[in-house]
Amino acid sequence: MLFMLIVKASKNSEAGNLPSPELRQAMTQYNEELVKAGVRVAAKGLHPSSNGIRLSYPAAGGDPVITDGPFTESEDLIAGFILIDVNSREEAISWAMRMPDPQGHGEGQVELRQVFD
User: Fold this and answer.
1) Who contacts 63 (Cβ-Cβ below 8 Å, separation ≥6)?
2) What ranges make up the beta strands (E) of the chain?
3) CATH of the domain spanning 2-50+77-114
4) How far apart are CA 70 and CA 11, in angstroms?
């Protein structure tokens, strides 16, 4: 079963502020544990939305509208993701619970979603 741990953006990640060396080390260790367990498929951080492009479809069947970032709805933005392949929802939750606060400032939020097969 594939699950994506979606790391939500924060004011710090949107400002392009890198995590502290301690948090980077903790995240590296967490990712190494995922790899050692054979469950990590992919993991990447994303540039701030100021470098992003959004396509919206305001009319059914119409052409998309392109909007350059930054985007102001920070609660809807993503700072990174980890894709894991596990045996159950419970195992996915267990791995998600082991992740350090991905923002390191008490702002971290991770959404866990199952991927369709």
Assistant:
1) none
2) 2-8, 40-45, 53-56, 65-68, 78-85, 110-114
3) 3.30.70.1060
4) 12
Q: What is the pLDDT of residues 5-31, one digit of tens each?
A: 999 998 888 888 888 899 999 999 999
Long-range CB contact pairs, 36-39, < 8 A, 24+: 39/84, 39/85, 39/86, 39/91, 39/95
Record the tokens describing residue 88, joined without a space.
């159950």
pTM recorded for the entire structure: 0.87
CA 76 – CA 81 distance, rounded (Å)? 14
What ranges do the domains of the chain cover?
2-50+77-114
Residue with tokens 């985007």: 71
pLDDT at 45: 92
Question: What residues contact 79, with CB distance under 8 A and at least 6 apart?
Answer: 7, 8, 9, 10, 13, 14, 45, 46, 102, 103
Distance (Å, whole) CA 66 – CA 89: 36
On whether the CB atoms of residues 1 and 92 are closer than 8 A, the answer is: yes
Stronger pLDDT, 98 or 14, i.e. the higher one: 98
